[in-house]
Amino acid sequence: MNAPNVIDMPATAKPLDGPAGGTWHSQMPDDKAMLRAAVDLTRDLAVARPGIYWADMLASAAAGYAALAGAILVSSPVVAVLLGLFASLALYRALLFIHELTHIHKDALPGFRLGWNLLVGIPMLIPSFMYEGVHTQHHARTRYGTRDDPEYLPLALMKPWSLPVFALTALLLPPALLVRCAVLVPLGVIIPPLRTLVWERASALAINPQYRRRPPEGTFARMVFWQELACSVWAIALVAASIAWGWRPLLIALSVVSITALLNQIRTLVAHLWENDGETMTVTAQYLDSVNVPPPGVMAGLWAPVGLRYHALHHLLPSMPYHSLAEAHRRLHAHLGLDSTYPKASYRGLSPLLGRLASSTMKAR
Q: What does the alpha-carbon distance between residue 23 and residue 39 come to, in Å, rounded to a whole number?
């Protein structure tokens, strides 16, 4: 994957830290110049490059599984922990390609969806159907930030204790997925009401507790069937192998994936400002409620990989391949300038964003 470009800023310019709270609202007029520039300046960047996608995904998955195997096999606890942490980061990157799968055209990367599911989605019990058909609702113009958005909660307006609870519940995701795939899905075959409940409430990577998923249809329903079958067979095999030969490998694997889930949940906390309370929003308001963490900082590439450090830009150009976002950001930043709307969605890093969110919950209280 190409290294992100560093933005050249005037020596007198201070790093931007986004809009101050309360300086924008859901129905603020759209910045048509920014929206037009986002399309016009990036047309040549919109083609997904299979060589980058395959190489990045395969390398991330291979490194993650190798480190996980090392964490299981080594006798030194310190080395096992270090390998486990590395495995979490590598598998985190491999797993986040599920986000790309929801946006790329079905013919853009032949075989990539199948390959990703076989190598990453099914082994980690998070097949692509859990995000496909869900994440696109988050990008819908009239759904974003409303009660119909599966991926939005007004976290900035909630109680302060909601933030650590929101983050730490991610640690329970891997064992919950194991129970879902090994127990609930097979039982749902003979208990239709349970099958309906599992589909509606436990088959989407959503954070809105009010979200209910509609039944799959057509070719998507067939894809769901085969992915569910593969995940159930794999989950049952994992449990059977643990009963026969010991639980240590599975417990270590669940711990590694739990850290991966925690990383993603922390990233989710700062993917948006979470300041909208259910109103429909203009595209520009959605952009300013989202977050870019561009260079020169380097850590964002670890906690927001696969282009997610440019999350606000992604909401302007949802179909832009992740490997093109850095160049798209450079062009828009240079063209629109520091006095435009565009840089107001840029932030320094993770800590300032978490601090802003925590401060917002205290003020809301």
A: 26
CA distance 174 to 258: 6
Helix spans in the chain (H) = 32-40, 50-73, 77-95, 97-101, 112-116, 135-138, 162-168, 173-179, 185-190, 192-202, 218-245, 248-269, 283-288, 300-303, 311-316, 325-336, 350-364
123 plus 214 within the same structural domain: yes
Q: Is residue 290 part of a domain?
A: yes
In a domain, 331, yes or no: yes
* Contact indicator for 71, 84 with CB cutoff of 8 Å: yes
What pLDDT score was predicted for residue 27?
73
Q: Which residues pair with 292 in a beta bridge?
A: 310, 346
**Claim to verify: residue 215 and residue 308 sit in the same structural domain:** no
pLDDT tens sequence across 128-183: 999 999 999 999 989 999 999 999 999 999 999 999 999 999 999 999 999 999 99
Query: Measured between alpha carbons, how far is 121 from 180 in angstroms, rounded to an integer?
Result: 15
